[in-house]
Each structure stands twice: as C-alpha cells, then as structure tokens.
Amino acid sequence: MKTPNAMKVLLLGLFVVSFASAALALDKAELDRRIHKLCLRFAQMQQKPDKRIRAQTLQAAKAIILLDRTKAGFIFAYQGGSGLAMVKDKKSGQWGPAAFLKADEASLGFQVGGQQSFIVILLMDPNGTRLLSDPTFEFGGEARGTAGGSSAGVEGTIASAEKSVLVYDDRKGFYGGAAIKGGAVSPDEEANLAYYEQPLTMRQILFGNKVRPTEATAELGKRILEQSSK
Question: Which of 2, 35, 97, 98 lies at a CB distance of 3.0 to 4.6 Å from 84, suitable for a disulfide?
C-alpha cells in the first residue's frame, strides 16, 4: 500500500511528464510554423528577378541551409533555432528531412542592416555536405553573397576555386553587404529533440535514414525542386 508521501511523489512525477509532453508538442507545432515561414520566405525570394537563385544552381546543390533573421541588429531569428539544413538524396534527387541549426552574429559575421534578412546557403560539393554532421560546421575561406545585381541570381564567391559555398541574401531594409568570414553554424539539439521526439545527431537526421521528411519539410523540399526545374 502506497503511503501519502509516495502518492504525492507519483502524482508529481506524472504531472511533470504530462507537462513535458505538452511542451514538446507545442515546440513541434512552433517548429512546423517556422518551416512554413522559411518556405514562404524562399518562395518570395524566388519571385524577385534580381534576387532569385537560378534553377541550374539549385539543381546542382547538394545541400541547402536557410536562415531567417527577424530581429533588429545582428541577431539571427528567434529563440530555439535560427534555421535549418537539408541534404539532397543522391539516388532519388529528393530533399531529405530537416535538421535545425543555430547561428549567431559573432560566428557568422553577417554584415547586414535593417529589420529582416533571409539567407540561403548552398553547398555544391558532395563531400562538403558531410561537414554538416560535425559538431560545428565551419565555412572554409570566405563566402560572399549579394542581395541581387543587374542579373538574376548573382552567385556569391568563395576563396576556393570550386565555389563550394554560395550565399544569397534577400532583405527588407537597408543592405550593408553579406559576408561570412570563417563563420559557423551548429546543431540546435533542443529543436531537433522537440521536432523528432528522440535524441538524434545531425548525421542521423541528414544521412542516417532515421527519420523521414515531415509534411512541412516535404512541402519545403517540393518548393525547392519546383524552382530547380524552371
């Protein structure tokens, strides 16, 4: 027979578990909304002739990183994550599940002004995509992007001849340039745990076939593929 104290402990434990489960569900819903927002921002960027990424470039990309900075100053995005990464399946050509990332102004060094900035980073080297499974993904050399020029989809340049990292920027507000100098992004473990409801590494999400694309991620992947064939 359980004592009153034991019953209190049991009830408290059940309450904590229930609260944690509810919080987890809310977090997942918020992350779905975040993916939908990134999908919208990408679609809006592609509708602008002077800022859109060319179809051939998107088609050749092996991985993609989307970052959305929505606060003033240099702070990327919102609490719980600042963006996501997706890797293209070599056989099917489809975009896989999303892994959430963290990025901050100190590590990335984006020189942008205004209130909003949407950043797309394309990884063009198949071997380079594996760096996304490292504890911190560091950009080699210098990748430089633009908010658009005289022609559509002006590609960024990188120190290496291969141009393995291309950066695109679509802003609302003053443009002060977009540069990554030895920048880095890292896994958002909290967001990934909330979204997939199990502890998974970046490698497991992006390369391990541990999870399938969710409805929100599949929609984003579909939009990217549509823009790759235009």
Answer: 98
pLDDT digits (tens, 9 = 90+) for 73-128: 443 333 323 799 999 999 999 999 999 998 755 444 444 444 457 888 899 988 77
87-94: long-range pairs with CB below 8 Å, 24+:
87/62, 87/63, 87/129, 87/132, 87/206, 87/207, 88/61, 88/62, 88/63, 88/64, 90/126, 93/225, 94/221, 94/225
* DSSP annotation of 80: T
Distances (CA, A) of 61 to 23, 43, 199: 36, 17, 28
Q: Which long-range contacts (CB under 8 A, 24 or more apart) does 78-83 make?
A: 78/34, 80/27, 80/30, 80/31, 80/188, 80/190, 80/191, 80/194, 81/31, 81/34, 81/188, 81/190, 81/191, 82/188, 83/38, 83/119, 83/185
Q: Please state the φ and ψ torsions of residue 189, each to the nearest 5 degrees.
A: -65, -35
- Percent helix, strand and coil across the chain, each rounded to 5? 35, 25, 40
Res 171 pLDDT > 90: no
Q: How many Cβ atoms from other residues are within 10 Å of residue 22's Cβ?
A: 10
Query: What token pair was written down for 26?
Result: 């809310």
Q: What is the mean pLDDT of residues 173-201?
A: 73
